[in-house]
Amino acid sequence: MELINKLNWRFATKAMNGEKVPQEKVDKILEAARLAPTSSGLQPFEIFVITNQEVKEQIKPHAWNQPQVTDCSHLLVFAAWDNYTEERINNMFDLTNEIRGFKNEGWENYRQMLLSTYPQRSAEENFTHAAKQAYISFGAAIIAAAFEEVDSTPMEGFSPEAVDEILNLKEKGLKSVLLLPIGYREESNDWLVNLAKVRKSKEDFITEIK
Ligand SMILES: Cc1cc2nc3c(=O)[nH]c(=O)nc-3n(C[C@H](O)[C@H](O)[C@H](O)COP(=O)(O)O)c2cc1C
Questions:
Q1: Closest CA to 127 of 86, 93, 84, 92
Q2: CA–CA gap between residue 169 and residue 154 (Å, rounded)
Q3: From 54's CA, which of 48, 143, 202, 203 has a CA 20 to 30 Å away?
Q4: Domains of the chain, with CATH numbers?
């Protein structure tokens, strides 16, 4: 199947059958998420991979009791930095220098520019910016899952405060942003599986400026 066929095959799965996704496929989905581009390359979020059934059970009532939370194979939680700090910014710039093996004046000037703007902004503004970056990675994970013919359900329908509490995210300086159960569809129990995919027409979606 080519990518577009797989993207038509995927849907926001409403019922999963509990079957385990092979680790090799999970690794590829997570790698696609890790390779997603982010603003200034800061990657201001982390992913928690939950296979512990008790933890999934704890989360479910705080996620509108959506059954995929417990019937999935792996529950991915995308959690963004609660703020941009000097330390967090410096860590990513230092990592770049370490991996590339050299320091570059332009890059160091860019570091100073971020250091003189991001930490001074409100935590709320910085968290919102960080959360947007998590969405990019989330999209990459959804597409990678489809590519691997693994089902997933993108989820904003949960209480971030409750999930933060369950996963002790506050003490890590993180806030949950998105859930992504991955697993396999339970066709007999899924009201959406046979319904046509609904998208705006290309004409209403794309404007060519030639
Ligand atoms: C950010 C985001 C949050 C969503 N939250 C939920 C959710 O909590 N529960 C759910 O069943 N579907 C959720 N959806 C699924 C959307 O409703 C679905 O992707 C959209 O209707 C398009 O349908 P499709 O994904 O089946 O093609 C979410 C999708 C996105 C992208």
A1: 84
A2: 20
A3: 143
A4: 2-83+129-205 (3.40.109.10), 85-120 (no CATH)
3-state class of 198 per DSSP? coil
Among protein residues, the one with the nearest Cα to ligand 1's atom 5 is 155
Pairing between β-strand 45-50 and β-strand 151-152 as defined by DSSP bridges = unpaired
Cα(13) to centroid(ligand 1), Å = 9
Tell how far the Cα of 92 is from the centroid of ligand 1, in angstroms.
32
> What pLDDT, in 10s, does the model give residues 130-178?
999 999 999 999 999 999 999 999 999 999 999 999 999 999 999 999 9
Q: Are 24 and 148 in contact (CB under 8 A)?
A: no
71: tokens are: 């019937």
127 token code pair: 């968290």
Task: Give residue 39 CA to ligand 1 midpoint distance, Å.
Answer: 24
Q: Would you give the DSSP letter of residue 172?
A: G
Q: Atom 4 of ligand 1 has which residue's CA nearest to it?
A: 155
Pocket of ligand 1 (CB under 6 A): 11-12, 14, 66, 153-157, 197
DSSP per-residue codes, 81-127: ESS--HHHHHHHHHHHHHHHTS--HHHHHHHHHHHTTGGGS-HHHHH
SS3 151: strand
Question: Rounded to whole angstroms, how far apart are CA atoms 11 and 164?
Answer: 27
| Distance separating alpha carbons of residues 48 and 176, to the nearest angstrom | 10
